[in-house]
Amino acid sequence: MTHRPLLAIPLLLVALGAHAQDRAADPLAPLARCIQRGQFQARTQDRLPAGATTRTVDLAAGERQVSTADGYRLMLFRSSSLPIANVKIERSAAGSFAADRATIVAQMEEMSAKARLPQQRPLETDTRDDVEVLGLNHASIAHSPGVIGMYTLLHAASGTVATAYLLNQPADPRDFATDAQYEALRSEFIDSLAACMAAPGRQGEGAVKES
């Protein structure tokens, strides 16, 4: 069974807006640094173009727009030569987080109902460090190339959204070889990402001092 529907999701998430953003500030820089403070390191880190002020989300009821006042894309690695996660962090425009959250949650719920992953588990919902966490996971890493998990994290206090696509590693050397190893690493990664979203400045500064 193909994984193309889920793999195609990142291609549907970015739409260019008509107005450039004010780039005098870089509010997501501490979060981007914090995500890399431990064992997960970015080999590519791309900032959202200044003109990309929205992204399009496809829902059953039609297309909706999610605001993107700023954002970064990070391709994360651990010890393997293969990436372990493709992470997008975004800041909602002022006053838009509630509407953005509603659209994003609706998308995750629809994806869960459609079972976009083979042997997909039901939608996981949790709260960690005041960060709302929604996750979709394949039941096993066996014979599952490409994306094996997708998580959306939402932090209302900062108006920040993170989307993490967790990637399988079919070749050696790899960061995990069993479902149990993957699940433990996944939990550690999501915990770390949620902690960074809850306090990016404090943890981000810690990363700078340690380097």
What does this structure look like?
The chain is α+β, with helices and mostly antiparallel strands and 211 residues long. The protein is 30% helix and 30% strand. The protein is built from 6 helices and 9 strands, in the order αααβββββαββββαα. It has a 7-stranded antiparallel β-sheet, sandwiched between helices. A two-stranded antiparallel ribbon has the order 2-3. Helix 3 packs across helix 6 and helix 5 packs across helix 6.
Q: What attributes characterize this protein structure?
A:
211 residues, alpha+beta, seven-stranded antiparallel sheet, two-stranded antiparallel sheet, 6 helices, 30% helix, disordered N terminus, disordered C terminus
Layout of secondary structure:
Layout: H1 4-7, H2 9-12, H3 29-35, E1 41-47, E2 54-59, E3 62-67, E4 70-77, E5 85-91, H4 97-114, E6 124-128, E7 131-137, E8 147-155, E9 160-167, H5 179-198, H6 200-210
Antiparallel strand pairs: 1-4, 2-3, 4-5, 5-9, 6-7, 7-8, 8-9
Helix pairs in contact: 3-6, 5-6
Describe the structure in brief.
With 211 residues, the chain is an alpha+beta fold. The protein has helices spanning 4-7, 9-12, 29-35, 97-114, 179-198, 200-210; strands at residues 41-47, 54-59, 62-67, 70-77, 85-91, 124-128, 131-137, 147-155, 160-167.
